[in-house]
Amino acid sequence: MISNIGVRGYHYVEFYTGSAKMWAYWFCKAFSMQVTGYAGPETGVKDRVSYFLTLNNLKFIITSATKPSTYDVYGFIEKHGDGVKRWSLEVDDVSAAYHYAVEHFAIPVRSPRKIEDELGYVEEAAIKLYDDAEIVFFNKDNYTGIIKPGFRAPVSKITIETNPTNLQQVDHIVGNVRINEMNMWANYLNNALALETFIEFGPGDISTKYSALLSKVVRSPDKKIRNPINEPFEGMKKSQIEEYIDEYLGSGIQHVAITTENIIETIGNLRKNGVEFLPHPPDTYYEMLKEKGWEVTEDIEELKKHGILCDLEGTGYLLQLFTKPIGDRPTFFFEIIQRCKGAEGFGRGNFQALFESIERDQVLRGNFDRE
Ligand code: FE2
Known about the structure:
By secondary structure, the protein is α+β, with helices and mostly antiparallel strands. The chain folds into two domains: 2-139, 2,3-Dihydroxybiphenyl 1,2-Dioxygenase, domain 1; 170-365, 2,3-Dihydroxybiphenyl 1,2-Dioxygenase, domain 1 (Roll), CATH 3.10.180. The chain is 26% helix and 35% strand. Strands 2-3-4-1-5-8-7-6 form an eight-stranded mixed β-sheet. It has an eight-stranded mixed β-sheet with strand order 10-11-12-9-13-16-15-14, with helices on both faces. A hairpin with a 2-residue loop joins β6 and β7. α8 (283-292) packs antiparallel against α9. The radius of gyration is 20 Å and the shape is globular. The termini are far apart. The mean pLDDT is 92. Fe (ii) ion is lined by residues 172, 174, 255, 257, 335, 346.
């Protein structure tokens, strides 16, 4: 079992973008992250620049190409726009994890290799995910540098005034796939990473008056890795998943959820930093929340003020809010989530409010009616 090989949890998430410098600035300003490392021509990397951004246990690499021949970056952004190219799992043994995955039907992308410099070495290997994404197995136990060879301390040191978000770490990573692909990718992840199906939403479970989707959540038995997969389902209008597939030109990563220990403070500061969220649910949502009489520690009026959604999950509850798509295309976005009293779910009770909220934005984009 891969759990014996030792998946420690999510490590970095790498974005391919049109301009890494601009995106790095946005993450510093909007998410109050820090540029911890830099790779580019000044550090001996000729064809691309990458910024390594961190905050608590959150780790992003933002990459863009410096030459037209850097086709893995240009090809990706030409087709998909700015988005997540790969997410990594920190494992005890890269080679063992990779070989386990490939023996269990994972499609290989890069076989295990050591990347060395004078500070030691990291090990990496990668398998395919969705159309053009990757899952990386990563280990830096034998490396004393910032993240991996090629990266050095940032070349320019500037201070960006921002409000602290105190975002903590990746909670889950969600994929959108085409009709009939959800079961294929759920089986793929369950086999390759020894995950298990945790929740399944079938026809009619997640739908508004106009649109619908199917969803499966696969996760590791220790709950460190959670990967929901969404597929469109027939509806009167175009669902947000169909819109994603059309605009992204295929299947890929829809959102990354990030934890916080104080969502009211985090959302308040993210808003001050210029992050846009989905429209507030109607006031009746909060009236109903009060009537339910759940033991929610937070002040419901504060939740209402920030448009934060709340759902009861077993003995616990979760608080969540979704940003608008952060790039130019209506594709990738973030979720901010606070899990309280052991809540393990994904806000099923909020799906209705959430999707109606997304549909209001789809109408503005003219992407709600099928052509
Ligand atoms: Fe989510």
